[in-house]
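Good morning C.,

I know you're traveling, so I'll keep this short. The sequence:
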Amino acid sequence: MATTFGDAPVAINIKGLYAAYQRQPVLEDINLQFPAGKWTAIVGPNGAGKSMLFHVLTGSMKALRGSVHAFNEPIATHRKAGHIAYMAQREAIEWDFPVSVWETVMGGRYGHMRSDPLWRRLLPSPPWRGCA
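The tokens, ready to paste straight into the viewer:
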């Protein structure tokens, strides 16, 4: 597995990725590397698999085959640690709901905030804590 991309370390390494919706293949034998600290765009027509790729990258969808690593660790490790956030596409947002853009974006940081001691004091306690 490569650890550098030119001069930059590899942030995301996808190797031999296959993924499908209801047994209909969408991503087949995908091999990609994304360098750390660089902007990368995923561009393609509707139905090309862009959203599916992001679902696999965030760990919210399992690939049929292949591997996805972030900084040389399986993506599942980062998801379990709360290092990955995903903000849904426009269709999944209720635009009449009274929240600001800042609040919407910060919602994706919630998993990281739970592990930070300062934010833990400010976040609401889980409803089961303190129950008899």
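Safe travels,
E.
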